[in-house]
Amino acid sequence: MGDQQNTLTYEIIKAAVAGERWATEQILKHYDDYMTELATVKEKQPDGSVKCYVDEDLKQAIALNLLEEIPNFPLEEAERVVKGDVGLE
Prior knowledge:
- The chain is mainly alpha-helical.
- It contains 4 helices and 2 strands; from the N terminus they run ααββαα.
- A hairpin with a 5-residue loop joins β1 and β2 (about 50-55).
- α1 (about 10-15) packs antiparallel against α4 (about 75-85) and α2 (about 20-40) crosses α3 (about 55-70).
- The protein starts with 9 loop residues before the first helix and ends in a 6-residue tail after the last helix.
């Protein structure tokens, strides 16, 4: 799988927090499979079988919530972690 090519780095997150569209797109791409999993609905059919489908409205709502939270990412704390300056007191 192309997970290494779609790894989120500190630089990508920092750019997304700053409002860079390319970085925001990378974050959405990174979490796409997870959002699909969260939006997958299992519906029991009258014959007893179970039908699974992706609720696209729910997936879009999840993506919107993610986009709304990107500016709230604690960059200062992440920067300390990246620099190895984590004060565990």
